[in-house]
Design goal:
- The protein is of the alpha/beta class.
- It contains 15 helices and 8 strands.
- The strands form 3 sheets. A 3-stranded parallel sheet has the order 1-2-3. A 3-stranded antiparallel sheet has the order 4-5-6, covered by helices on one side.
- The protein is elongated and about 80 Å long.
Amino acid sequence: MGKESVLLDWETESGMSALETLVSSADILIEDWDRAYREEIGLTTDRFTSLNSELIEICATPFGLTGPYSRWKSTPIVQLALGGYLYLTGNSSEEPLMLPGHQPDYLTGLNAHNAVQIALWERARSGRGQFLEMSMMENLGVLHQFTFEMETYSGVVRNRNGLQWNKVGPFASYGITTLPCDDGYVAFGASTEDQWERLCAMLGREDLLDDPEFDTRLKRSQKSDTLDSLITDWMKGKTRQEVFLEGSEKWFLPVAPVLNLNEVLRDPQFVQRNLFQPLSHPEAGEALYPTFPFAMSEIKPIVARAPLLGEHTSDVLGGLA
């Protein structure tokens, strides 16, 4: 994405000098140093501000620079456990499950972008930069949807509910689930009254519309096992694509095949919009890489391979002299 890689050792005099020169003309500095390390190496916010009063510095650490956990090291599973998300993931009768990837890092990056935009707006108004401090644990703590409201308002502590997360709380309904067909799984997102009517028509079970056991969203959520069996029986002999086309195009239901990553890379929607593009890397070879998930009318984003470690050191640091 147009990144450049510079390798320097700020524990040496020349490396520290190069870092200070870079900081003196930078708009934004992103780092993850804890307080003790910052003080040990002398890279404090006051020092950076003396070099560049307009600098926006953002420090993103697992738990923040203050508090009882601030000196702890961490990994994504630790942050998810302490942030409450591990407890909610999986089935209630089984152990909590890890989310794929490095979700705390991704979420913190998104919110760091938002924080920097606010700081840039303030700098345009006041002419001053500022120090932004972020905790990955806090980013997870504010992410819970309905969980805090359920606990603080009604005293309900949400548990793991697997595919039946929508069976509890004020929004209990049926229709948000994942069920097997001949070649994999299909995701259903039908939960409104009009979608329920179309789902019954698709199944050929319009009689359920007059059945008092299914006449409210809450009752349907409580009969989810019965309805799961009806849909699974209807899907027997059908592929994911057949269910997808019939459910979405004929009955206008929110239905989709559950794709693996290989299928995602070749999905016609992504292909037509050119989201994944082939790039050649001197060490990794040629591969498909994700590009930007947005399009701009006036700017064409730079799509480039990841740099090698220190690949641009000479070009960047050589230009500082």
